[in-house]
Amino acid sequence: IAFLVDNGYLALHLFPLATRQEYLAALHGLSHQKYVYEAAGGGEAHIALKLLVGNYLRHKFGKDVLYEHPVFGYFPDVMTADNRVVVECGHTHNPEKIFAYFKQGRVEECILVPYPDPEEQNVTAYSFTALSELTGFLDFWESEKNLAIKNKLRHRR
Which of 46, 61, 66, 76 is the most exposed place for a label (fewest CB within 10 A)? Predict the structure, then answer.
């Protein structure tokens, strides 16, 4: 991902999603929050992040959100109902998801929201948007991976 940002394939924008106090309030008040059942999945800290993200997306875009909804072969934690914005919360170890979301063409923004560091005063969100050459690079990268797999299979014979 850093390579894609550094080389102008993805734009990166950081922003405070919520204050630490808002996060803790969401975490400790899960039983009283609207949408808590829709956002189920993962531990309480994960659900609290998803609820904060859902509120953010509803206010920013004025659209319905979906939690853990299947799209493009994955289940993003939160997304707008029109599939334009997808969000992964907590520890996201699979960057392939981000590439798949952008490769589909409808996703305009992918946001990552890691668990907040105990020292931070805000929950920081990392917003990625595709720049003009991203799709071409992802096509090239995929073809290179496929070629490498084919070469390995040929050498096994």
Answer: 61
